[in-house]
Amino acid sequence: MADPKPLHDTFESEVEAFLVRHGMAASRLGALAVGDTRFVANLRRGRSPRLATADRVREFMRDYRPKKKSA
User: Fold this and answer.
1) What rounded mean pLDDT belongs to the chain?
2) Nearest to 17 by CA among 58, 63, 69, 70
3) Which helix (H) or strand (E) covers residue 44, if one does?
């Protein structure tokens, strides 16, 4: 049986998928979700967020609804 994927890797994959799906810049996600434009860059460098921070980001991604652009 294979080892489960580490939580950091799973969380980073969720963040990356969200960015692609919404065409959002990494700095914007960090700013909107946790007030830190470097959040995703630090995550990509291997820094692990606190569980409470990861929960805030996941909640933001779950509840995010893009605004419709005006014509």
Assistant:
1) 93
2) 58
3) helix 39-44
